[in-house]
Amino acid sequence: MASPTLPTLERPGDFIDGAFVPTDAPDEELRILSPGDQADLVSVHGVKHAHVDAAVAAARKAFPAWRRLGEAKRRELLRAYQERVRHHRDAIAETISREVGKPLWDATGEANALAGKVDLMLGEGAEWTRDRRLEDLPGEIRYRPHGVLAVIGPFNFPAHLPNGQIVPALLLGNTVVFKPSEKTPSAAVWMARCFEEAGFPPGVVNVVQGAAASAKSLADHDDVDGILFTGSVAVGQKIVAANAHRPGRLVALELGGKNATIVLDDADVERAARQIAFAAFASGGQRCTATSRLFVTPKIAEPLIARLSEAAKAAKVGYPLDEGVFMGPLISDEARQALLQAQGRAREAGFEAIVDGGALEVPGHEGWYVRPSLHRAPEATARVPGYTHEELFGPDVAIYVVDDLDQAVTLANDTAYGLACAVFTQDAAAFEAAADRLRVGVLHWNQSSAGASGHLPFGGVKDSGNHRPAGITAGTFCSWMQAVRLTPPEDAPLPGWPGLFDDA
Asked: Which candidate, 39, 81, 325, 467, has a CA 20 to 30 Å from the CA of 406?
């Protein structure tokens, strides 16, 4: 049933040039039903393809004045935005919970992160892009804004992940056009309201809704200076291809992962089991850093698998707004069917269903629910197309018993992705040996692969990204560096070269 505290968002319009612009007679319509209950109409958004051009034009017009405004005033406005997202936190969280399917505790954590990101980026994050003068030479390094940045967001963290790019972009003097995922469009409306209420100048932040056509138009727009995309590898590849003839355009990609956890014989079983269960099942396994492969050495394998099995069976799956729910539904029926089909292929190939999840009915709610699953590989090197090496985005762990750390690291690296990995061991030397070889952008020691710290960079290597990590270093790709050679001291000798001014 629909929430009694948050009404349906009916055609709120796109946010362009400081105002919500109606989308009557739309080219498309996004009618968003909650994945937790198909009787819950969360939002209806009209899509006007021409609004992409209007939003980019507004951002371009606003850029010179926003850049000249100065960092102090931009900081003041971002603090005002921070106050507004705190004020609307509960509504933002409930919107995310209903539209994404996250339990309310999970969605509230995301809503809280909006304000937290402002603190981080206005604090230590800003130090990464602080202009600085060289001590021994007449020179400076200065950081300049790109101009108009297009931010294309994902469905799984529809507010937090785009916000982590928008805030540093604005601080450094860029203007923004934000297109959220067509699957979860409404958190962006709340963000736009917060920017509006904070008093941001017209055109500095713009929000347009749409599906693939809108994303393509924005990513290929001639008047956009940079594209910040979070989503699938396939779409990221299309964005790169569309901009191959624009070598000067920024393209920053945060893509998927096929993340591994490695557990060695000396690990704390209870700690490892709890952290792995969270990494695999939180947000329905729909985090880009979710653990979907577990490599465990022989002595600890059976007790760890037994404890994980208990956790998988005990995890409470249910309607995301109900109390005490750990895991909600998947984002869509298509996502659920894709997961179940991949698991079926694994079982046909000899994987043992230690915990056979499958579809789940939640009384009173027609949604896309599944139970957590654990599948044990018949051998450490087993491969199943579409299951063992591809991102699943569901609560499933493939478990491999390996000979030792060397084999675990080799197999963990044996994927096109390189986002996150966790290693559980009490041996610092063993962890450092693994760290030296693991090709991932985010590495955890005795912690969940699905965790992250805003005080660290966040991004992947290989097919998981293109070396533009978000997190604390996001400002480094929201700006470009200018090398400035300053005038020499007055007493510096005149220059001369052999054959030219050689009297110097």
From this structure: 467
Active site residues: 254, 288
The pLDDT averaged over each successive group of 10 residues in the chain (504 residues) is 55 95 92 95 93 98 98 99 98 97 98 98 97 94 98 98 98 99 97 98 98 95 98 96 95 97 98 99 98 99 99 98 98 98 98 96 97 98 97 98 99 98 99 99 98 95 94 97 95 94 81
Length of the chain as a residue count: 504
468: Cβ contacts below 8 Å, ≥ 6 apart: 250, 251, 252, 253, 254, 459, 477
Q: For residue 7, what pLDDT is reported?
A: 62
* 151 strand-pairing partners: 178, 228
DSSP H helices, 9-103, are 50-68, 71-87, 89-100
Label the pairing between strands 420-424 and 175-179: unpaired
CB 360 within 8 A of CB 101: no
- The pLDDT assigned to 10 comes to 78
Q: Which amino acid is at 432?
A: E
The β-bridge partners of 133 are 140
How would you class 84 by CB atoms within 10 Å of its CB: exposed for 0-12, middle for 13-18, buried for 19 or more? buried
Domain that holds residue 275: 259-456
The two most distant CA atoms of the chain are separated, in Å, by 93
Taking the C-alpha atoms of residue 85 and residue 126, their distance in angstroms, rounded to an integer, is 21
Rounded Cα–Cα distance for residues 283 and 381 (Å): 28
pTM as predicted:
0.96
Distance CA 88, CA 19 (A): 19
* Together in a domain, 239 and 332: no
Q: Are residues 248 and 392 in the same domain?
A: no
The DSSP symbol for 394 reads: S
* DSSP per-residue codes, 256-274: ---EEEEE-TTS-HHHHHH
- Phi and psi dihedrals of 363, rounded to 5? -55, 130
Residue 1, in any domain of the structure: no
* Whether 336 and 209 share a structural domain: no
